[in-house]
């Protein structure tokens, strides 16, 4: 990778470093894990209890009381579930463990993907009551996200103390989801849960450091099964021979095999925890340190030059040039921007001169006045190790670590921070498309405040799209779901904006049913120069999508050539305004066939008015039909729910044009649906399919509206 000389010179000038718990100098001393799982699985509670167990915080808070470290956002406390990614780190056995807490609500899938981008592995949390509560569907969807990210995983079965806790059923549901996806991963329990007669829970590791080396005649069936699976995965003939021969197999060797299998994504260890009771927390932390691969094992990331040309991939080299990525943008209690950054190469220090390189494949985002093409120079002032909202200043952030930067000035979510001598951008991750529209209306006096608030929101809300609809004159916010919309509106109001939420208006058009003639006569005489213009037109329908065509067939100079452009201007203006206000007339041909002019009183403006009057008469005589926007919709749905989705599309006056199974138990449905039936489809489809179906929409054309 180019630029190494300048980077190495700067690092030598800084002198040797001595790592700390908050700022290790060796990526091998880091474990960054994304905590992922469905809603109510206990992710935030697990993170809180792990922080308390390690001594990172003095006392664990609760979600209900709004006192947890990672749910520090006011909207998370109000909704009592995570709405954005948050990071907290803890020390364990000399290793810095970064816990990246992610939301479980499907509306915040973008935050989950950001968390996966920031991590080297996944702690996938599933509540042991989820199998009874019907959470298998969202669990399957999140598992697919983790597989797409290509990260090693540890499955955590939480809430062991729940009244309907069923570890066996929860594990079976997860195995079924993994098998259905043909992921090729083997789920292996690595802990044992024991319940005392008084209801007390305890969780013990099956490969504990103090346990004797296992043998083939070990009385613990769970341990025998684990060891056999690991030996099979290792393909180590020596271990196999020892096991078959009844000799003890070294625990240290088994833990090495487990770590290698996790890194190779052939084995997913399964650990049980009961966070509030503290059961299984030590075993889980040991598992993270021993089995989760360090930052140095992170796969190289595809990269590009500022002009979009391919660049050498970025590897986790602490001695390389600085390459970091903004994975999340938020605000602190003072309203200042806070950027969560993952360093992928080099060592970020406060004296590092950086530039911003955006992803050319993404929609450009506001950069607070910075250079919109990237290459905006900046210098980091302070580096912090985040503990939720608490910023702890550190001297550096090495490759593989996470840090928070305040007052960055430039660079938003998805941007790459790199050295000035070697500008490089990391290919961004895919963002979910916002498909739920929310319309706002604001008084003229409040419009500036709304615009400022939306500009600030756009820097942090990567999945928020703001549209100012030219047809309906509404401000439309495109969100990913109702929970996302609730957060966006709350943050907009907190920024001082005053507005009301109204129904989304759907643009409509009209076209004529047949041919007709219209006469426009504009004659006025009130002293001095009068106004005189007469024109006769014919109107007729055209094929869909033809627009408006104007034809001049004046002969004999009935209307002077200088006034004909005025007639056309008046005709087009009236058609665009619509005979029915708000409904432009489209797909018509207007032919100017006759007219009269006066040598003194005629003018361009008079013929504009006459053309407008002629159109109104002709359209009224021809009759009209309302045209609505038709969208091409593609739905990906599980085969078992295909009938429900097809029936729902039919109820929305949708026309199915094709279905195509993909061979993995899902079917793609292509349909044409009126826009009015799609306004809440993002919410309704999620409810209909328990969040397992996804869809995209694309404008197709205008079609006659279907009467209901």
UniProtKB/TrEMBL annotation:
GO molecular function, one term: translation elongation factor activity
Bias (Acidic residues) ranges: 210-220
UniProt KW Manganese keyword: no
PROSITE patterns linked: G_TR_2
Record keyword GTP-binding present: yes
Start and end residues of each stretch annotated as Disordered: 1-29, 199-221
Coiled coil ranges: none
Pfam families cross-referenced by the UniProt entry: EFG_C, EFG_III, EFG_IV, GTP_EFTU
Keywords: Elongation factor, GTP-binding, Nucleotide-binding, Protein biosynthesis
Superkingdom in the source lineage: Bacteria
Residue ranges constituting the Tr-type G domain according to the UniProt record: 28-296
Protein name: Elongation factor G
Gene source species: Actinomycetospora endophytica
Lineage: Bacteria, Bacillati, Actinomycetota, Actinomycetes, Pseudonocardiales
């Amino acid at each position: 990778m180019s630029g190494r000389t300048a980077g190495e010179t700067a690092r030598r000038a800084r002198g040797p470093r001595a790592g700390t718990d908050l700022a290790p100098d060796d990526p091998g001393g880091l474990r960054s894990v994304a905590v992922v799982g469905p809603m109510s699985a206990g992710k935030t509670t697990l993170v809180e209890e792990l922080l308390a167990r390690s001594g990172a915080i003095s006392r664990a808070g609760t979600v209900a009381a709004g006192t947890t470290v990672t749910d520090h956002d006011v909207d998370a406390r109000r909704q009592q579930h995570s709405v954005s990614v948050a990071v907290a780190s803890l020390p364990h056995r000399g290793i810095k463990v970064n816990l990246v807490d992610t939301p479980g609500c499907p509306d915040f899938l973008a935050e989950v993907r950001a968390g996966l981008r920031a991590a080297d592995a996944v702690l996938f949390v599933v509540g042991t009551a989820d199998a009874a509560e019907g959470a298998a569907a969202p669990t399957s969807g999140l598992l697919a996200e983790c597989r797409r990210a290509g990260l090693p995983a540890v499955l955590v079965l939480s809430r062991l103390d729940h009244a309907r806790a069923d570890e066996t059923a929860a594990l079976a549901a997860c195995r079924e989801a993994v098998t259905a996806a043909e992921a090729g991963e083997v789920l292996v329990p690595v802990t044992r849960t024991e319940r005392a007669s008084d209801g007390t829970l305890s969780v013990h590791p099956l490969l504990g450091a103090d346990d004797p080396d296992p043998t083939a005649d070990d009385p613990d069936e769970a341990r025998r099964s684990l060891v056999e699976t690991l030996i099979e995965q290792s393909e180590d003939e020596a271990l196999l021979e020892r096991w078959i021969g009844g000799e003890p197999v070294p625990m240290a060797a088994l833990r090495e095999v487990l770590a290698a299998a996790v890194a190779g994504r052939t084995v997913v260890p399964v650990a049980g925890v009961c966070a509030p009771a503290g059961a299984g927390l030590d075993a889980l932390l040991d598992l993270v340190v021993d089995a989760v691969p360090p930052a140095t094992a992170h796969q190289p990331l595809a990269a590009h030059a500022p002009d979009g040309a391919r660049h050498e991939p970025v590897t986790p080299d602490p001695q390389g040039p600085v390459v970091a990525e903004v994975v999340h943008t938020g605000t602190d209690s003072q309203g200042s921007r806070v950027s969560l950054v993952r360093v992928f190469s080099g060592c970020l220090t406060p004296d590092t001169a950086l530039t911003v390189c955006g992803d050319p494949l993404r929609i450009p985002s506001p950069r607070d006045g910075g250079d919109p093409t990237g290459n905006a120079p900046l210098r980091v002032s302070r580096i912090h190790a985040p503990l939720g909202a608490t910023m702890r200043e550190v001297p550096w952030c090495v490759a593989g670590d996470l840090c928070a930067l305040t007052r960055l000035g430039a660079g938003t979510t998805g941007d790459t921070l790199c050295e000035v001598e070697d500008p490089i951008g990391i290919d961004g991750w895919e963002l979910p498309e916002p498909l739920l529209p929310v319309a706002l209306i604001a008084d003229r006096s409040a419009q500036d405040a709304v615009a400022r608030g939306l500009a600030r929101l756009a820097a942090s809300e990567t999945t928020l799209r703001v549209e100012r609809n030219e047809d309906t004159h509404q401000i439309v916010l495109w969100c990913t779901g109702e929970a996302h919309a609730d957060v966006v509106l709350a943050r907009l109001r907190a920024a001082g904006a005053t507005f009301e939420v109204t129904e989304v208006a759907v643009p409509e058009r009209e076209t004529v049913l047949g041919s007709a003639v219209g006469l426009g006569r504009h004659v006025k005489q009130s002293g001095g120069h009068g106004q005189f213009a007469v024109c006769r037109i014919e109107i007729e329908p055209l094929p869909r999508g033809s627009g408006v065509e104007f034809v001049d067939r004046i002969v004999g100079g009935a209307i002077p050539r200088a006034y004909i452009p005025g007639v056309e201007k008046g005709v087009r203006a009236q058609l665009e305004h619509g005979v029915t206000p708000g409904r432009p007339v489209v797909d018509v041909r207007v032919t100017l066939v006759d007219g009269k002019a006066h040598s003194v009183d005629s003018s361009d403006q008079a013929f504009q008015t006459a053309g407008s009057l002629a159109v109104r008469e002709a359209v009224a005589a021809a009759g009209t039909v309302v045209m609505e926007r038709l969208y091409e919709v593609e739905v990906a749905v599980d085969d078992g729910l295909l009938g429900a989705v097809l029936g729902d599309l039919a109820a929305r006056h949708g026309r199915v044009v094709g279905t195509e199974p993909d061979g993995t138990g899902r079917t793609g449905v292509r349909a044409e649906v009126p826009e009015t039936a799609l306004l809440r489809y993002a919410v309704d489809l999620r409810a209909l399919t328990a969040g397992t179906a996804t869809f995209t929409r694309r404008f197709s054309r205008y079609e006659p509206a279907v009467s209901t």
